[in-house]
């Protein structure tokens, strides 16, 4: 279960808007997080509280394949991104880094809504509106990687099981 406040964006949010190129000079995930969504909202990282979610329209994470976009979002405190659709490479990077990509019709969701995402039942409850919408969550190996909080952790746990 993921519960947090909504930060809503539109369609075609590209990786350069998520973490602009000039801020890619570090590998420190917390430094990257300071500039999360900087190409759209320079104050975004100051507004986020641990557990919040990003909501967007179509094609979230388009553009380059930079993993730093997902890292910036995750280390900013965001637990999930809910979008109508994702760029394929962003979706895969999100799984690998341990950020939940959730597919849903986001028309009902607005800035500052409080949502509770039930990953098992594939529902998003909009608590302040007493509404529920259906969603699609990762399944199979993708779900296992997310439960482990990313691919590296998943591989470490899998290696321990093999011994």
UniProtKB/TrEMBL annotation:
It comes from Methanocaldococcus vulcanius (strain ATCC 700851 / DSM 12094 / M7). The keyword Lipid biosynthesis does not apply. Belongs to the LeuD family. LeuD type 2 subfamily. Pfam families: Aconitase_C (PF00694). A motif (YLRT) lies at residues 23-26. This is Methanogen homoaconitase small subunit. Pathway: Organic acid metabolism; 2-oxosuberate biosynthesis. It is an enzyme of class 4 (lyase). NCBIfam families: HacB_Meth, LEUD_arch. The keyword Lyase applies.
């Amino acid at each position: 279960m993921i519960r947090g406040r909504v930060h809503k964006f539109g369609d075609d949010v590209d990786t350069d808007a998520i973490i602009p190129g000039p801020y890619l000079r570090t590998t420190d995930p917390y430094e990257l997080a300071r500039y999360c969504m900087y190409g759209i909202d320079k104050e975004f990282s100051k507004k986020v509280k641990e557990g919040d979610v990003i909501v967007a329209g179509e094609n979230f994470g388009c553009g380059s394949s930079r993993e730093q976009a997902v890292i910036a979002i995750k280390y900013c405190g965001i637990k999930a991104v809910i979008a109508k659709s994702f760029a394929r490479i962003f979706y895969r990077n999100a799984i690998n880094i341990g950020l939940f990509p959730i597919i849903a019709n986001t028309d009902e969701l607005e800035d500052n809504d409080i949502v509770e995402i039930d990953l098992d039942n594939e529902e998003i409850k909009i608590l302040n509106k007493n509404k529920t919408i259906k969603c699609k969550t990762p399944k199979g190996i993708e779900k296992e990687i997310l439960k482990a909080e990313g691919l590296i952790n998943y591989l470490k746990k899998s290696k321990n099981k093999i011994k």
